[in-house]
Amino acid sequence: MRLVNTPTLELEFFIKPPPYAILSHRWTEDEVLFEDVERPLFEWRHKAGASKILQGSVTALTRGHRYIWIDSCCIDKKSSAEEDELGRQEGDDPRRRPGL
After folding, report:
1. 34 CA to centre of own chain
2. Residue 4 CB-density burial (10 A; 0-12 exposed, 13-18 middle, 19+ buried)
3. For a surface tag, which of 13, 26, 67, 70 has the fewest beta carbons within 10 Å of its beta carbon?
4. Helix (H, G, I), strand (E, B) or coil at 13
5. Cβ pair 100, 20 in contact under 8 A
6. Alpha carbon distance 62, 59 (integer Å)
7. pLDDT beyond 60 at 76
8. pLDDT tens digits for range 9-57
């Protein structure tokens, strides 16, 4: 599972993820995607969806969450197996903290 590190805004991969918050948002044009966040911030911060990630990270960090999960950039949409597996993991996981 990939999570966004709120202080660094970099993706980190976990087999057993730490506690994290979920950023729920409405998709719009020009979202920041998985392939974007694999690159340095200065290469994707101009995208319209970047403000959601930046503001969500600040909010999560101020509430004590070091990691957030965002569907638009934490899932590799090119991998149907990854999408399927993450879909199954979205059940009752006590480490997930919705409500940002």
Report:
1. 9
2. buried
3. 26
4. strand
5. no
6. 5
7. yes
8. 999 999 999 999 998 767 778 888 889 988 888 898 999 888 888 999 9
